[in-house]
Every structure is written in C-alpha cells, then in structure tokens.
C-alpha cells in the first residue's frame, strides 16, 4: 500500500534540525569552495583523495568531502533529495541514529571508492572525489527500507514506490560502475552508499522489533490493522496514512 505522510503545524515547525543543519553546512562549504581563490587546491585538501586519505591518513577527508560539490546543480539536487528523504527518516530514527546512517553511508562509500582506486593503479587514487551523493543515497535507501511502499514522485510527476526506485537506482549505479571504471562519476561509491543505508536501516529496524511490544508495531511491520494510537489508518483509496504530531521534545510522532 502506498504511504502518504501528513503533518500538523506550520511549515517552519516541520523542519528537522539535523537535516536542516546538514543542508546549511553543505551550502556554506560550497560557498567557501567557490570563493577560496583556488578551487583545485581546496578540493585536494578537503575532497576525498584516496592516496592521501588512506595511504597518508588524511582522515578528515572521509567527512569533509561530503560537504563539497562540483557546482550549483550538483549541490541543489543532493540537498533536495536530502530534504525529501531526510526529514521523515530523521523523525523516525531520531537525530543520533540518523546521524549514524548519514555519516557511515558517506564514510563507507568513500572507503569503498578509495580501495578500488588504489587497486586500479590508473591515477584515480590522486583525483579528489567530492559530493554528498553517497551519504544522501544512504539516507534515501534507509527511507526506502523503512517505508518500502511510500510513493515518491519521480521528476515530480511519475509515482514510484520507494523500494522499487532505490533498487532500480542501485542496479543502474552498479552496472555503470562495472562497465565504466574510469568515470567522473563515482558510480560504485553511490552503489555502496545504497547498500550501507539499507543494511544500517535493517539493523535499526531489527533492534526496534526486539525492544518494542508487538502491538506497538506499525502496519508495515506487522498486520494492516489500525494502530492503538489512531495515528495510522487508511483513506478511502486504501492508502496507509501516518499522521505525525510534534511533541514537546521536538520529535514528530
């Protein structure tokens, strides 16, 4: 069943703080990159350069590269995706677990890309990789794992279920990475971000199932009946509706 998210309150109150902070940080980093005076040197220092980050232990690059981008549209599309998938996922996981998923996806995708680049011996280990795509795809994959039947509007008009979309994208990235090893796009890093996101979300869901009573589980985790809180129900079209309200602690439930 497709899922539609509804929230109560003003648009300003719906913004999740960590997702918003990550977006602000990425925009600020891109502006620094833009006005640094020497973008190439800036990217070599703060982008992920496998030979430096792994061989020379420039460990900050595993994180700093996430907030750099090639250009405005690279930044824009990543931040739109982070906003769309990050807000509901952060409200579901909480800030701490959401941060784990975001950064581990980004760090893991960089490590995977770096090991391949070092083994390739084609000079790619000296080329900086920049962008939040691996981390953002980890978030999108986590969302798809948590809400597989949620409907995503591809290009704003084509309805696709979240799990179907992320699996198609993973297949595309894997095939592109295997068939075009030397590419300006780190396809296998993107693919690894998806794998990490799905894996971490699966672990979070497994841990939650072990600690929550069966009656408290959502329809996607058990039967399709209405939950006791009354926040999960079906509309006249048979879609599952999850009504979220903001609590005193700032979390949507």
Order of helices and strands: EHHHHHHHHEEHHEE
Fold-level CATH name: Rhomboid-like fold
Shape: globular
Helix content: 55-70%
How far is the first residue's CA from the last residue's CA? 20 Å
What is the number of independent domains?
A: 1
> Taking Cα atoms only, what radius of gyration do you get, to the nearest Å?
19 Å
Beta-strand share of residues = 5-15%
Per CATH, the superfamily is Rhomboid-like
Low-confidence stretches: 1-16, 218-229
CATH level-two architecture: Up-down Bundle
Overall pLDDT confidence: 80
Number of helices: 10
Name of the CATH first level: Mainly Alpha
- Label the structural class: mainly alpha
Side by side, the strands of the main sheet go: 1-5-4
Number of E-type strands:
5
